[in-house]
Amino acid sequence: MKNLILASASPRRRELLGVFGIDFEVRPADIDESVLDGETPADYTLRLAVEKARAVAGDCPGGFVLGSDTTVALDGECLGKPVDAAQARDMLLRLSGTRHDVLSAVALVHPDGEVDSRLSTTIVDFAPLPAAWVDAYVDSGEPMDKAGAYGIQGAAGIWVRRLEGSYTGVVGLPQFETGELLRAAGLC
Fold first, then answer.
1. Which of 3, 16, 129, 144 allows an S-S link to 63, with CB 3.0 to 4.6 Å?
2. Of 69, 112, 125, 145, which residue is the catalytic one?
């Protein structure tokens, strides 16, 4: 049996990976998630997925390690996880009435150190958000651990008029791309 490790503490990623019906263990990665100067949202998201997987692979020789990262990008700017309620409110008001990108990358580090990765890009069309909705959502605490300060699978899902791409990518683990990596490695 091949060992698979998910390099993430996200319960959403754990649930999405569980759909594949393969055993895995969870070992969160601890890396610096700062955006580098001049880094595009796509490059940033792919780099973090790879770095998370490599960080955990260094402590778990002989296994396959899956890393993932999700970024909300507005006009080429990465909107990460808010540091406080004021930043969450600001992010949501900036996203109000926009079409923005949600990029989700997955990277699989093989036991021999080989890395394979994929990127999913989804366009999300948000309705205009009344300030009262934003305030109530921020007060709920839900946006605090989510890129762009929202989770489509939660209360913010009612704001999405349309999406073009991968729903599971917006949630945090694009299942199509993840399946490609797992099948190519013989894991499912």
1. 3
2. 69
- Rounded Cα distance, 175 and 122, in Å: 13
The model's pTM: 0.93
Catalytic residue list contains 69 = yes
Is there a contact between 70 and 10 (Cβ–Cβ < 8 Å)?
A: no
* Tokens encoding 155: 């209360």
Give residue-wise pLDDT tens across range 166-177: 999 999 999 999
Of 97, 116, 114, 119, the C-alpha closest to 45 is 119
Cα–Cα distance measured from residue 67 to residue 74, given in angstroms and rounded to the nearest whole number: 23
Model confidence pLDDT, tens digit, residues 49-81:
999 999 999 988 889 999 999 999 999 999 999
